[in-house]
């Protein structure tokens, strides 16, 4: 099979390394403007123009460009009837998201978004705990992402801008928000506060959310890239008969609270290295996604990664940003005594 990869950043490199272990992959057509040394032997540098002009036969496409370009690049391949995998978020604009879903259905193609953490052993285990009510019913979820992204990281020209990337919510903590919705369902109401470091980026680098889900579970999410180093990503779930914790750099370890101590579930935990790049906390999920996505017999993702099933997280993020910038429905402190009535 022949595969096109658009973009050769950290994620593009990661995919190329992974595809080297797939025997059916004959050639990788890499669409990248920059010159690259020591490129993988199955790779060929090309352009969109060459693909169209030379009528290169492609079986799959993977989009690894800045988020603001995802719609343009993904729609190009879907119009040609080529199954397409898109890095998260699959688009930034809700309008573009709906257009892409419509195009996918019209061309009867496979189009997924790469929320790779859904394939983590800890996430799979956490999902089963909820389904089987191992600790009873969850009622409160405390989630956090404390990471570091330097000024140099944001100096690319596209990172940290709402039109091309988004802030800590749309970029880094979208994985955490995705898992919260994946586990606990849609949101009934929320409030939000955000903070900005304009010397480093345009978008927010700190955000805190309080959410009430439709099933009345209350959750919160605290996220920042302002920390002095990558500390953790975590989701602490309180249930009426117990408590469990999923944490580490990419939600890759699961722990249970016993009467005396916090116990790790080694069978359902994985070790991911910290840092940026192909050897970082991206983990093992991308390879698992590829095994399904590159299987012509599989059309629907076992982890619900099909783009039409992931519109909700985009809608929620847009609602959060609208509240942060426009509605500003925050409670304020007043000198009014509380009168309790039974």
Can you offer a commentary on this structure?
This protein is α/β, with parallel strands linked by helices. The protein has two domains: 115 residues, Rossmann fold, CATH 3.40.50; 190 residues, Dihydrodipicolinate Reductase, domain 2. The protein is built from eight helices and 14 strands. Helix 3 runs parallel beside helix 4. The longest helix has 17 residues. The mean pLDDT is 94.
Topology:
Layout: E1 2-6, H1 10-19, E2 27-31, E3 43-46, H2 48-53, E4 60-63, H3 70-79, E5 83-87, H4 94-107, E6 111-114, H5 121-132, E7 138-146, H6 174-184, E8 187-195, E9 206-213, E10 218-224, E11 232-239, E12 242-247, E13 253-257, E14 262-264, H7 285-293, H8 311-327
Parallel strand pairs: 1-2, 1-4, 2-3, 4-5, 5-6, 7-10
Antiparallel strand pairs: 7-11, 8-9, 9-10, 11-12, 12-13, 13-14
Helix pairs in contact: 3-4
Task: Summarize the structure in short.
This protein is of the alpha/beta class. The chain has eight helices and 14 strands.
Helix content: 25-40%
Tell me the β content. 15-25%
What is CATH's topology name of the largest domain?
A: Dihydrodipicolinate Reductase, domain 2
Q: What global shape is seen?
A: globular
Total count of domains: 2
Q: What would the average pLDDT be, to the nearest integer?
A: 94
Number of strands: 14
| The top level CATH class name of the largest domain | Alpha Beta
Distance between the termini: 69 Å
